[in-house]
Amino acid sequence: MPRPRSLTQDQLAAAALAVIDREGLPGLSMRAVAAELGISTMALYRYVQDRGELEALVVELVLGAVDSTPPPPDAGTWQARVTLLADRLRATVGAHPDVLPLTLTHRHRSPGVLRWGETVLGVLGEAGLGPEERIVALRALLAYVIGAIQQEHLGALSGAGTTAIAGLPAEEYPYLTEAARGARSLTPDREFHGGLALLLAGLGG
To answer: Residue 80: which residues within 8 A CB-CB, separation 6 or more?
Structure first.
């Protein structure tokens, strides 16, 4: 099997991401990425030591595309500016939802997510939050965005789970069945921004 003279990290990451997007995270392997690149598995080991290195490259490829430019002050309140940053993260990572589990493992080594976090902390600082409040708020925002993306793609309100809950005995689960019936009219955007607004309101309280 012919192999190129040299490969860049971006090419390796793009190939690994293509495998994940097509086959899911369990499909990521040295052999699968080598096949995607048109090289032998042994040749791939010239560039990365193991799957873990491939995962880190994928995370940076995805998170590096997140726009971390600080929103201008005229973008609105600090809550509006944080919402804009959260929207950017959701849009970029949501395009590759199978990568989400990797972000938890490799995010500390990703310059992309570090730049995003730095920008968010700056906005929170301008809002008057202290050092401890800022780090708690940042972790809460990350947890919310990542969890919301997972729910949107793996357990959407329009899915079978909501239908199953709506069909439970109402006398035994009155609140769940009522919520499930109402959930069918919620779009992913309304769900995401509604939860984010509640979180930000709590942070500003």
So the answer is: 71
